[in-house]
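Incident log, entry 3
Record: Probable malate:quinone oxidoreductase (494 residues)
Problem: checksum mismatch between cached and fresh output.
Input:
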Amino acid sequence: MADLDVTRADAVLIGGGIASATLAAMLAELEPDWNVVVLEKLDRLGLESSDGWNNAGTGHSALCELNYTPQDVDGSVSPAKAITINEQFQVSRQFWAHLVEKGRIGDPSSFIHSVPHMSFVHGIENVDYLRRRHEALTANPLFDRMGFTTEHAQLTEWAPLVTESRPVTETIAATHSPDGTDVDFGALTNQLLDHADRVGTTVSTGSEVIDLRRMGTDWGVMVRSVADDSIQVIRTPFVFVGAGGASLPLLQKSGIDEIRGFGGFPISGQWLRCTDPDVISRHDAKVYGKAAVGAPPMSVPHLDTRYVGGRRSLMFGPYAGWSPKFLKSGRYSDLFASVKPSNLTQMMAVAPPNLDLMVYLGSQLAATRHQRFEALLEYMPSAHLEDWEEVTAGQRVQVIAPDADKHGVLQFGTQVITAEDGSIGGMLGASPGASTATSIMLGLLERMFPDRIEGWRPGIAEMVPSWGTHLSDDPDAAHRSLAATADALGLEHH
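Fresh output:
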């Protein structure tokens, strides 16, 4: 390394997606004099999991996602996880609202829109579950505007495409929340990094991190220029790895003990996207159903109004697929290269308990276009095959984490890994990471900068007024937060 071009930075953020963009925007507020460097391998920002068509854009707030409200053996429904995720999304809304009000980012309609969130089920058992879920959630102030119905007429008002051509004798139920949103995380990523760039952050595209090494108390981040293959090293005391599926191999390169035993299982997917403007204009909701047996949470079917690149769209999916790549732009060797002696036992241990997932993926891979279309008909009986086109969704790497017995456990969600000395941290996993990135990054700041967090506390409180409290415990505060962020972000709130 001594003969290479070596530069210095106060912090290096690897990956040009929503996680690094959120952290860069925070550091621009808290430490405007720092020299922060953001490195992205591709020639543009937010092209992988943050891209509008590579994720569900739901603004995950647990208003419609049934996997966040599991039913116990006694029939009761636990709202705890849903409340936690909604709280985290409110933190994101507060941060975005702060940046809009301060003029840091532009017109919020470029990245966020009000879109009602709905859950839809059919069958007596599922209707009973949804009723119990509604009762459990609406006792909380973050969910108290959620409606419930078993009437076809009411469902027609909420989502006419769901009832059109559906037998009125079919047993159905739905919930409807007007507080739902659609978020174009690719557009938001670019706005956040534009803001950071204007105040001195170096945002470098076409820059591939090929190694991470200790250099005394610092880290040496070895970077290859995609344009000319030149190599440089950035020396820094703090590194954040927010590279989506590439985070696992990069953290493995760092050699930190905390990544030992962790592995990853990649899952890809596809959407059906509507091409008929008349159909698109008749649906204004995100309608989520129940996942198939063995399906990962990212594959829960949903009929969604989307705003991507400022254009309104309608999609259905996703349909799960499989590829050994860790990124859409990755290599077919990614999965195999990630298997190390330190995680081999965990990687092998996850297969037997997850045979239902393997069966599900196999059935999805074998499904024909007509079979996929039949899944859409469950949510939109009047759909016509010729009005829909296939679009490739993003690549996800589900976390395989070591448990207490050093066996592997397949996790659906996000996980933050930090070194004991706080000098390096990274985010692994998938949903709901984009929606909860602000909360995740605040937690990361506490873990990586324990000696600075108290000094930052007033600044964080300005960015996120509810930080350190629970909105769910204070109805007045919850309602004020929802109303204030709705006003700042141009969202509907009555």
